[in-house]
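Complex 425.
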Amino acid sequence: MGRSLWKACAGEKKTDGMMTEKSDRRTERMKLTEEWNKKTIELAQALIRSRSLSGNEGEAAAVLKDYMERTGIYDEVMTDRLGNVIGHIKGRNPGSRLLFDGHIDTVPAGNPSGWTHDPFGGDIADGRLYGRGASDMKGAVAAFTTGAEMFARLCGKDFSGDIYVAGVVQEECFEGVAARSVSAAVKPDYVVIGEASEMNLKIGQRGRAEIVVETFGVPAHSANPEKGVNAVYKMCGVIEALQKLTPPEHPVLGRGILELTDVKSMPYPGASVVPEYCRATYDRRLLTGETRESVLKPILEKIEELQSRDPKLKVKVSYASGKDLCYTGKEISAERFFPGWLFGGKEAYIQKIKDELEAMGYRPQLACYNFCTNGSHYAGEAGIPVIGLGPSCESLAHVIDESISLKELTEVSECYAGVCRALLR
Ligand SMILES: [Zn+2]
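Predicted structure with zinc ion bound:
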C-alpha cells in the first residue's frame, strides 16, 4: 500500500518493482502509511462516538471541525447556517474546485440490545469498525478528510485548484437539500460523493419523489352512510386506477416505480363516522429528465378520467413537503422531489479518476447507486460533474451491527488522495 500511496500524492511514476527502491525510503513510506491509517480510523471512531441523528449533528460536526483545524493543513474551516462543516485546502496554483461530500447525520440505532457491539462505541473487532454510521457514512467522511489532508501534505500543497471537504447535515430525510448550501458556498467544478460504492465509481442514481393523493368526502353517521361521501371508498377507486399506470423505464437506471407506501383516513379512529378525508402517499423513483410536471401528468390524467365518470370524486395531488430544525436552530424545508442523474462514463474527469485508481492498483467498475444521495442536488439540480466513490456496500447501511472493513476504510482514503491527484495535478 505504501507504494501506491506515494504515487498518488508525491507523483511518483510506476516502477518495475520494490527491488529498486531504497530500503530507508520504504521504511519512511511504511511509517507514513501507518500514521495515515491510524488517523483515518481514529477520526471515524470519534465520529461514530458522537451520536448524530438528523437535526442533532452538532457534536459530530464539532469533532470534524476540530480535527481539520488541528491538522494545520486546512486553510479554513467554516460552519454554515444549517451546520454543514466545510474545510478548504488551497493549492499553490489556480485550478479546479474539487468538493468531497459526505453526510454526518445517521438514522437511529434502533434497540441497542439487538447489537453485538455498542452502536456508539466505535469498537474494533476482526478487522472491522462497528457502529451506527460506520458504513453510512462516517467512515467515508473520515477517509476523505484525511485523504485530502495527506495529499496536500505530501505534495506540499503544490497542486492546482482547491479542495473542499464537507460534512453535510440532514441528508437522511432531505437528500440534496443541505447540500444546496454547500454548493452555493463552494461552487465546485467536481463533486465526489462518498456514499458506499465498494470502491467502484458510481456515475448515476435514480432520484425520488413523494407524491401525496388526498380525497375529500362528506362526514355522516355510519348508521346512515348514504348521507355522506366516504373518502376512503373514493380513495380505493383512485388507488386502483393508479396501479394500472406503468411508470417509465430507463435502460441504465431501471424502473421509475410508483409504489403506494401509506394510507391514512380521518377522523381516526372513525368510530361510527363515515370518513371525510383520506390521504395516500406514493414513492416514485425518478429517472433522468423527469420534471415535477411530467411526473404528475399521467396521474392527473387518470384522475380526470375518473372524475368524468364520478362527479362526487374530489381529489388533490401534490408533492409531499417536509421541514425540520437543524442543530443550529435554523429551519430546513423542501418539497420531496429529488432528481435522478446519470453520466455516460466517458467524460474526461471520470476517465482521469479511473486511470489514476488503476495506476494505484485498484480496479473500479462504473455503476449506479441504487439509493438517493446528495448527488440529486449537485448533478440532478445543478448539473455539476459528480462521481460516487466510497468504502463498503450499500446493504450495510441502516442495519443492526453496522460496520466497515478497516482495510477498505484506509484504502479508500488513499483513493481519495488519488482523486485529488487525478483532477488537480
Ligand atoms: Zn448515506
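The CA atoms of residues 292 and 337 lie 7 Å apart.
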